[in-house]
Amino acid sequence: MPPNWQHKIDEYLHEDVPSFDYGGFVVGDKVEKAEILCKARGVLCGVPFARRVFEYLGCRVEWLVEEGLWVDVSKGNVVVARVEGPVRFLLLGERIALNILARASGIATVSRMAREIADKAQWKGRVAGTRKTTPGFRLVEKYSLLVGGVDSHRNDLSSMVMLKDNHIASAGSITGAVTKARSVAGFSIKIEVECQNQQEAEEALAAGAEIVMLDNFKPEALKATSQKLKEKFPHSILEASGGVTLDTLESYFSPHVDVISSSILHQGVKHIDFSLNVLSSSYVKQ
């Protein structure tokens, strides 16, 4: 992760307590212990970020479940971590840590399901996410894709050149757009072009693009087109994207397709439910 990743997590805390924590004043600084419970089946993810939340607040965290493993709740809620520290800080960090775990684990869970579909079919390509991430939360979401076992795709606009339909329209042609991109990208940065048909893909590859995205192709058309492109451009990287779901993923598998990307891995995923329970000995429920 980037060297400044911890500062991003710290900013979440600063956003949540811009001035005074009134609830924290009520409970004070007495040291308490708490448990983090996983309440739904999923792949545990977000451990470094949740740990940072509590450690920044001076609390100690012990993880009981390894990140990246399935959590089985068939016999009840599972304690995934124990936290100890001043109770006001336990509660201050509670919601941010749980929100991170819930979304990260949701993404990792769907990603793992996609990875298992590919493994079962013995497909050798890469399942990948997209750049359709939540502003301010990209690092966590990209990390979660990796924990789930899929590719994070490009991290940002500086990671790779991707020329989409609007770039092509503005530049005037695929060849012109690729040529101009290469003039600044040099030899070290790959260029990908979004293509709607075989003719566009051939133009992009002939112009020097290393990757073409075959956008919104139906499975059978994708397989036929990718085979023809690989015959003519054997060293090209072919990506399929658009309309892919977990239910339809397997139908896109082809030995000629290298990458299948989909935002369903991280957009609109069902969050995994977590809660924090303070183990206070001084409170007896009536």
Automatic annotation (TrEMBL):
Keywords, sorted A to Z: Glycosyltransferase, Pyridine nucleotide biosynthesis, Transferase
Pfam families: QRPTase_C, QRPTase_N
Top-level division of the source organism's lineage: Eukaryota
GO terms (BP aspect): NAD+ biosynthetic process; quinolinate catabolic process
Domain Quinolinate phosphoribosyl transferase N-terminal residue range list: 28-105
Gene3D superfamilies: Aldolase class I, Quinolinate phosphoribosyl transferase, N-terminal domain
InterPro entries attached to this UniProt entry: Aldolase_TIM (IPR013785), NadC (IPR004393), NadC/ModD (IPR027277), Nicotinate_pribotase-like_C (IPR036068), Quinolinate_PRibosylTase_N_sf (IPR037128), Quinolinate_PRibosylTrfase_C (IPR002638), Quinolinate_PRibosylTrfase_N (IPR022412)
Positions of the Quinolinate phosphoribosyl transferase C-terminal domain: 107-276
Family label: Belongs to the NadC/ModD family.
Described purpose of this protein according to its UniProt entry: Involved in the catabolism of quinolinic acid (QA).
Subunit structure: Hexamer formed by 3 homodimers.
Protein's UniProt name: Nicotinate-nucleotide pyrophosphorylase [carboxylating]
Organism: Arcella intermedia
